Amino acid sequence: MTSTDTSALASARRRALTVAVSALCTEGGFGTAEKGALESLTEMLQSYITEMGRSAKQYCELAGRTEPMLTDVTVSLIEMGNNLLLYLGLKY
Q1: Cα–Cα distances in angstroms (integers) from residue 49 to residues 29, 43, 45, 76, in the given order
Q2: 87/84 Cα distance (integer angstroms)
Q3: Quick check: pTM over 0.90?
Q4: Which Pfam family, an example, fits this chain (predicted)?
């Protein structure tokens, strides 16, 4: 993969995140959003997803595995302060 291909792929991913953030804003009742605010929210989402992946990878490697499992992602979410199990009414 060349650097041009990598750059194009990163740009496409960024656009997809921007579309997702825009959809979330619309769903939340916002009719418009400033470009700077949309960029900030997109950057925050990208950082969040990156950190979640990094953390899940570390838990996976700590357990001696090469592919993350759902439990790795769950523990990563809990570590990041998002205990989705509580929202679902489950105990861990």
Answers
A1: 24, 10, 6, 11
A2: 5
A3: no
A4: Bromo_TP
